[in-house]
């Protein structure tokens, strides 16, 4: 793409490497590949990275590197062939209790698209999604792309509390809130799976580059899986 | 051991933050005024990365069960030991059973308590910082409450020689009300019209009451955007300034989310983040553009002396 990648300052201790300005899996694979190579390069002064859809934020230590120096290292890396790892073949299956109290915005998503609730569930669970980004809150996996016929805009005013496990649609993205947090996506259901667990390695259930599929479950099965996920919880 | 008698308005355990886990969505957290906490640690003979208490506006009432070398830095919340006023930015030795309390806010917002040995809660993902969103770190990721008992580590240096040590005034951040904040423009200032950019750099913005460790929401002349579309979500640095569709900027701080989708038009330089941390709702800020190199120079000037600060 013309003009890309470009390197922009993000303050005095980070740079943003922009690979393009659209959401597609090829650009996103490049982002993750460059992030891996940068980390593997162990360049003194280069800190952690945050990969997103089509950009990479790179933190650096100002005691070691200047903006020009960190830009030089990144440009050097971009100039060389970057091995893009084959996309992960793992498709993680996610049980979801759709609608009702678990998915209070499902009727809106249906109405917005002139579909029945059952049709929205069938379309949402009929697609395989790529995890483009893990971020926002611990273990939050932003996936795409949501078929156009069930897309829905974000809430005009975000909820201050979205329960852990909530499955939402925000435009062309879908994802699961792993911990209770504020959130502006339309909530269509909830999964009993624990998507972030400090005592698991790695703590995040999803890694960028994973694939996911959702399947509908009923309340009984929800409770059964939730008990297995939280054996110490007093149900 | 430190016993919490009254928790104060909002008191959390913090250190220099949780580095290296943002790729999993785990934020950095850490002290909002990280320099003040680092200075307090140096005064009591700790490594600068040890954990202390971040105390907001209304300080807690605490009891030191053992003889404890401590320092209070950052905002002036009128600290008192057994009822007697104490100097800030100074190492004090508290006899066993002493009560540390705070008389009320004189200036600034966030004060830091550093104790010799550091507050020794478990390290979670490389840090002791309280991470409210993740509900871990510090004390199960929550603010301290009455009757909490805070474990203190073993001091690595003799306490007596450090007593009375003062962190020099010229090495402290130049706190002031209504500060001008230096920013590096970008990455997406092209979302603004030239008029919008001029408005941002000439306007005065009030800090609203809707401001916390995640970010400060500002209120002033709405910043005009020339691009209406949303930005594709990208990673966020400390001090990032976002402009949502209503044109009122938000400065993202220690407890920010790791990624966000509003256009980032500028970032406050790290040297000026202590000034932000000590701004209260109702204070006004202005912005001035600098280059990344100027920001780096200011940061090295502020933090460089700490690297050489010697207690001997």
Which strands sit side by side, in order, in the main sheet of chain B?
12-19-16-17-14-13-20
Q: Can you count the beta strands of chain A?
A: 13
Q: Which chains share the greatest interface?
A: A-B, 48 and 48 residues
* Strand segment count of chain B: 20
**What portion of the residues of chain A fall into strands of 2 or more residues?**
25-35%
Shape of chain A: elongated
Roughly how much helix do the residues of chain B carry, as a percent range?
10-25%
Explained architecture:
Chain A is of the alpha+beta class. Chain A contains five helices and 13 strands. Chain A folds into two domains: 74 residues, Gyrase A, domain 2; 139 residues, Cyclophilin. In chain A, 23% of the residues lie in helices and 28% in strands. In chain A, a hairpin with a 2-residue loop joins strand 9 and strand 10. The longest helix of chain A is centred in the first third of the chain and has 16 residues. The longest helix of chain B is centred in the C-terminal third of the chain and has 17 residues. Chain B contains four helices and 20 strands. In chain B, a hairpin with a 2-residue loop joins strand 6 and strand 7. By secondary structure, chain B is α+β, with helices and mostly antiparallel strands. A seven-stranded mixed barrel of chain B has the order 12-19-16-17-14-13-20. Chain B has a six-stranded antiparallel β-sheet with strand order 7-6-9-4-1-11, with no helix packed on it. A five-stranded antiparallel β-sheet of chain B has the order 2-3-10-5-8. Chains A and B meet through strand 2, strand 3 and strand 4 of A and strand 15, strand 18, strand 19 and helix 4 of B.
Question: Key features?
Answer:
heterodimer, A: 235 residues, alpha+beta, Gyrase A, domain 2, Cyclophilin, seven-stranded mixed beta barrel, four-stranded antiparallel β-sheet, 5 helices, elongated, B: 312 residues, 2 domains, six-stranded antiparallel β-sheet, 4 helices, 29% strand
